[in-house]
């Protein structure tokens, strides 16, 4: 039996979800009206149901994100949303709050969100034994750690492979709540990790000023699919429920090609849905939103992960300014020396420049000729300033105008049935057989070869989302002469019948089954303190699993001196003051160290044995 590999794409809305399906996604994840970890990416249940309807044509699954912590008054609404998701045809619900496991729910699969901080074997075993069907692992894990969790649990494993990286272990970041009152665990993170900070010691000595010191590059594991499969990953997740359609299309096609390449060389694996994209644009990850790329901790080694001078998307470097000035009419112009291997700037391109204070200045290229750019916007640009293109007009048009078409491969066998009628046996790529018999009140063909050629050619075409191929024709006797119009009609009837059969199968089958939860024993490290308990049901669950002390969620009770963030990222290492990498230089940096922003000081604590950094409020 083949192992199915799933490419999981974000869907901010139905339009982007459909684009992801067309580009080759095997599954989508999207939020309902509330309780999603991206507050600005909500959808009505009607929109989700319509997305499911389109996705199901290809066997593409849709998962609802219900992955915030829940307050007591929200429990009935959250439970109702699970039922609504089930009725809408969703295949699973992604969960952070354990209260849902104490509710009576429909037979729909539950996935443990990365917000549940699944970073150890012990935590993974605990969540598996609670009854989750899939674990979405922390981004900070190495291949070895992923493989260890897979061996220990044997459960379905999902991992992020592309997109923005939270600097903190997900679900364990309270920095946004502390600084702005907007909780990441409630879906309204203010992304304060992308802000500018000054790093200083207790004496006031400054080591870095006004830099995005907590901002990471974006993850890109497109070349590591084989390694991840060998580690036990079967679902490859692209981050980005707040991203636009261009980003989703581009990244989905990139990973569709990477996964298909692996499957082509490894017959024991298969796609998790039907159909594949035909034609269309060629992906290039560098040309849509990113902060620069990293493979993070996948090899179990530390490297430079910070997004350097800017936390925003600056795009590809296309050259540097050689001269600039203003025309008599007051419009700005500049000339640039183009970077080798890049295309020239064209009308409509978006350009940006990183200023000395770390801020990004942007403009739109209104008129371009040779190496000269004219814009109506007012920006100060000095000679030598690098020029970046963060909106590639030509590529964006290609993404919009040259979309692939997703087609389901259907093998056909033709012949004459025992009834004497014309028989077509259709076998869609993901299994199942559909037989249809057609009346053929037509005379025998005078030219047997030509008649057979017509049957093969006319039936073996596209019809709707299906790409038909005649793989076998068996006519021991005479071949009927079937007009081309009738063959075309047969092909259309086949397509309709296959679609209707798929619809019946979807409606007849429940999205999943739930066997109920057990009460596993909590890992020792979690017995005395549990974060993110924000309602009576989650406290009841943890108490039933042996918790001796359950602290209320930080959002309910702000506590002084609390750990606001725990991260594999280390500012000392990033700036070259690591105790392990350069002990002599490390002595030049005096602890305690503080991040300063808007008058607030955040203390940094370093656990060099485990290579972790803590931000303390």
Verbal overview:
With 617 residues, this protein is of the alpha/beta class. The strands form four sheets. The chain has an eight-stranded parallel beta barrel with strand order 1-2-3-4-5-6-7-11, surrounded by five helices. Helix 1 (14-22) runs parallel beside helix 8, helix 4 (121-130) runs parallel beside helix 5 (143-153) and helix 5 (143-153) packs parallel to helix 7 (225-231). The protein is globular and about 100 Å long.
Walk across the major sheet and give the strand order: 1-2-3-4-5-6-7-11
SS summary, helix count: 14
- The helix content is 10-25%
Distance between the termini: 52 Å
Question: Sheet with the most strands?
Answer: 8 strands, parallel, barrel
Beta-strand segment tally: 30
Rg on CA atoms, Å: 28 Å
- The chain-level mean pLDDT equals 92
Residue stretches low in confidence (pLDDT < 50, at least 5 long) are: none
Secondary structure category: alpha/beta
